[in-house]
Structure of 3-oxoacyl-ACP reductase:
Amino acid sequence: MAKEFTGKRVIVMGGSRGIGRSIALGFAAGGASVSICARGAGPLEATRREIAALGVTAHAASVDLADAGQIEAYVPEAVEALGGLDVLVNNASGFGQSDDEDGWAASLNVDMMAVVRGSHAAIPHLQPGSSIVNISSISALRASSRSAPYGAIKAAVMHYTASQAKMLARKGIRVNCVAPGSIEFPGGSWENRKTSNPELYNATLANIPFGRMGKPEEVAEVVLFLASAKASWVTGQSIVVDGGQLVGP
């Protein structure tokens, strides 16, 4: 998809590291101007510089994606910096694990409401031919005793994606979802679990037919496809990217 996105303007919410970073860099490598947001200033600026080094407009802002006001302020700022908007990627996660108020609040406020709020802020700027890509998880598709809030809210993201696609079709805006499996990258949860919880890490690895964790770039490529003209007749879909993890070894 070399230069597939020349002239396009992209916002990646939660775009400073891991999957979000790879998505942002993928669009930039394809010629798009990119804005990213996240909380951590260090990784955010590092990724902004990587985007700029690809010769495109790079914008970044520190945003708490659990805060509605900050999202409402960020999106117009990003649109102005980019000169418009063609693609919104909702990637942020609060990773709510525990089945208690804190766990549910973490997933609801970021995994769900940042998608809703980010979309509402972006839609007035999107033209026919634009698209939204939401990031869910294979946790949405199976029961979990470790992360019930995370899985349930990611399932809601899939459902909302289909509803968004139906609501926005008349405006010519496509909406799709990507559900990654276990993805490993420096500083990410699976790299940390390799040492902090090797039993869980190895058990998860044993359930992936290819015998390895996924890479952020492998998720990004599917996001790029869904946002591209090659997917012009694809909307309302949730695509699993897990190396067969759901079907087992």
